[in-house]
């Protein structure tokens, strides 16, 4: 029976604890990739992932393992991202698995995302195989980490596998443990097709390519399938597995993880979390989908060239297929023209989306400063949801502004308690609790405004704790705050896309900081450009960008032609993320100036 030989599992961990490295070692040991094709972080297929050394997208591969019992097992390994911004990808891949390999760094121990991810795995009833990685490090403390796993997570870690992704130690044992500890799938091959879409990707030739986990039944080329959320039917044109490149197969069966294509051209019809069934023998009830993910941060996205608006819409639709957490609706800005309001899970997610759109779809984009969504209650008793500061109602009609609050859990060594509390207090946090996890480590809980967390909180936390702190947060609700909208005027004209919302206590300082920032980011032009910050009609800060005419080539005395060319190219490249507002050119950095003044 084929299913008895299948193991579907994910690797979950806190960021940088070594998931991708362990996945690489597993691919090597199972000879899934020829040695000459082996590169580090093989499953991180996006150039962006390799450059940054992080996993952004989940990836599923099929591998074949010859176990000690003499049998060959089919492993479906789903690699997942570790950063807090991408935890929705983790929950999706877990729904396709029976087990999870939990990787914990032997020197760092259990961290915030270790807990968050392991809870997701336990919610999905997955069998957990604990692994303590990086045991080659001199600072490794495997016994302490075992105890932490038992105390903090409540699973037996006495037989945790000790590995080093770097040297390969322990990986053969891990493979055996996957065979023995993780249950085989138990779907009914004879039943009608029931498959979960856990990812999808747009391909110009094949249409939407769906990553699927078959729970029951089979699917092959020529079958008529139905997507249950829309009821639309399609004929299957290709099925296969990733190993690690796409390899077409005659059919997929219950228990399998693979892909299918069915000339699905309307991007909106493929929804991650949806169920695929047979059009001729549909199942009565779809699989439980995923919970809808709530964006945390919103930003306006505009093409540098207005004519590319249609292209941007198409690119967003295609990217959304591959990134279920991305949301967008059209918006217009007086300053920037036609664009989209986009919702993201955090700043890293926002950054990644902008880069993917620019690289994969060849667009030049301007993004406005990120904002959270506010609930504004006006004097007529109505509540307005405002995710764009430019849409703030007239201040004289506002009764109350409420902002989203999160419960933030920070884990840190006890030496840094003072530094963390000082930081949280400064970011308007309300202290909730503090618990000692063991002799050295504490968990500190604060409730704080989301807007304070999304900017540079994580970076500041890291730098004030020598990199030791980890963070996880969840939305807890909306609370009234003393907030005001700050307008920025450039050359006497308010630029709607530069408006932002700020706490009254920080407004004056912020106004001064941001005008100073803008002065350094807006390039000088042939005329003087006044920059002002205003609350309502009141100007609270002002600077001026002096006029002058700059000839960049004057620097290149000596006529070094290659240097001259480089300088020109640099200028040209620098021009891409620039938008003319009235007769002033505003660069991308200016829109993000608010991030740097916090
Ligand atoms: P994300 O994909 O971003 O979530 O990170 P990850 O958990 O996949 O971590 P990754 O495999 O990229 O490893 C993080 C860093 O730790 C890299 O610099 C690795 O070279 C290093 N590393 C991984 N495993 C080991 C190990 O066993 N020993 C040592 N010394 N370093 C390791």
From TrEMBL:
Family label: Belongs to the GTP-binding elongation factor family. LepA subfamily. Belongs to the TRAFAC class translation factor GTPase superfamily. Classic translation factor GTPase family. LepA subfamily.
One term under GO cellular component: plasma membrane
PROSITE patterns documented for this protein: G_TR_1, G_TR_2
Species of the source: Schleiferilactobacillus shenzhenensis LY-73
Gene it is expressed from: lepA
A Pfam family this chain is assigned to: GTP_EFTU
Catalytic activity: GTP + H2O = GDP + phosphate + H(+)
GO molecular function, one term: GTP binding
Enzyme nomenclature, EC number: 3.6.5.n1
Protein known as: Elongation factor 4
Binding site for GTP: 16-21, 133-136
Task of the protein: Required for accurate and efficient protein synthesis under certain stress conditions. May act as a fidelity factor of the translation reaction, by catalyzing a one-codon backward translocation of tRNAs on improperly translocated ribosomes. Back-translocation proceeds from a post-translocation (POST) complex to a pre-translocation (PRE) complex, thus giving elongation factor G a second chance to translocate the tRNAs correctly. Binds to ribosomes in a GTP-dependent manner.
InterPro entries: EF-4, EFG_III/V, EFG_V-like, EFTu-like_2, G_TR_CS, LepA_C_sf, LepA_CTD, LepA_IV
């Amino acid at each position: 029976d084929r299913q008895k030989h299948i193991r579907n599992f994910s690797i979950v961990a806190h960021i940088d604890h070594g998931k991708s490295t362990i996945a690489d070692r597993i691919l090597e040991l199972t000879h899934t990739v020829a040695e000459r094709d082996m590169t580090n972080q093989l499953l991180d297929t996006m150039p962006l992932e390799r450059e940054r050394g992080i996993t952004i997208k989940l990836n599923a591969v099929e591998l074949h393992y010859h176990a000690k019992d003499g049998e060959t097992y089919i492993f479906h390994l789903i690699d997942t991202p570790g950063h807090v911004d991408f935890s929705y990808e983790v929950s999706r891949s877990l729904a396709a698995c029976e087990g999870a390999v939990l990787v914990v760094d032997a020197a760092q121990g259990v961290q915030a995302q270790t807990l968050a991810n392991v809870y997701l795995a336990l919610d999905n009833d997955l069998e957990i195989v604990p692994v303590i990685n990086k045991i080659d490090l001199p600072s490794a403390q495997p016994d302490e980490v075992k105890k932490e796993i038992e105390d903090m997570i409540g699973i037996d870690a006495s037989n945790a596998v000790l590995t080093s992704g770097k040297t390969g130690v322990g990986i053969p044992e891990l493979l055996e443990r996957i065979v023995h500890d993780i249950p085989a799938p138990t779907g009914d091959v004879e039943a009608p097709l029931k498959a979960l879409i856990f990812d999808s990707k747009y391909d110009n030739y094949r249409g939407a390519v769906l990553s699927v986990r078959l729970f029951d039944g089979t699917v092959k080329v020529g079958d008529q399938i139905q997507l249950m959320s829309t009821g639309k039917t399609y004929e299957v044109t290709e099925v296969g597995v990733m190993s690690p490149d796409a390899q077409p197969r005659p059919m997929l069966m219950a228990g399998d993880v693979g892909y299918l294509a069915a000339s699905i051209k309307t991007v909106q019809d493929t929804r991650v979390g949806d169920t695929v069934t047979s059009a001729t023998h549909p199942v009565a009830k779809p699989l439980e989908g995923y919970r809808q993910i709530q964006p945390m941060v919103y930003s306006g996205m505009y093409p540098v060239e207005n004519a590319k608006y249609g292209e941007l819409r198409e690119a967003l639709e295609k990217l959304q297929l591959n990134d279920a957490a991305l949301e967008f609706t059209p918006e217009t800005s007086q300053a920037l023209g036609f664009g989209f309001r986009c919702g993201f899970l955090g700043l890293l997610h926002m950054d990644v989306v902008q880069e993917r759109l620019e690289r994969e779809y060849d667009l030049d984009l301007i993004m406005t400063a990120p904002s959270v969504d506010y609930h504004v209650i006006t004097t007529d008793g109505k509540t307005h949801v405002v995710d764009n500061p430019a849409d703030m109602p007239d201040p004289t009609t506002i009764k109350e502004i409420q902002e989203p609050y999160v419960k933030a859990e920070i884990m840190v060594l006890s030496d840094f308690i003072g530094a963390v509390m000082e930081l949280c207090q400064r970011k308007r946090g309300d202290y909730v609790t503090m618990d000692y996890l063991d002799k050295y480590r504490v968990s500190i809980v604060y409730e704080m405004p989301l807007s304070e967390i999304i900017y540079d909180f994580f970076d500041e936390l890291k730098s004030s704790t020598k990199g030791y702190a980890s963070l996880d947060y969840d939305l807890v609700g909306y609370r009234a705050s003393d907030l005001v909208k700050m307008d920025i005027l450039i050359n006497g004209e308010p630029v709607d896309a530069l408006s932002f919302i700020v706490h009254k206590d920080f407004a004056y300082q912020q106004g001064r900081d941001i005008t100073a920032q803008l002065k350094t980011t807006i390039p000088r032009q042939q005329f003087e450009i006044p920059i002002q910050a205003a609350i309502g009609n009141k100007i609270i800060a002002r600077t001026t960008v002096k006029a002058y005419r700059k000839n960049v080539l004057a620097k290149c005395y000596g006529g070094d032609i290659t240097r001259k060319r480089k300088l020109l190219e640099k200028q040209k490249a620098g021009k891409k993320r620039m938008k003319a507002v009235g007769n002033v050119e505003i660069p991308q950095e200016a829109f993000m100036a608010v991030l740097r003044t916090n």
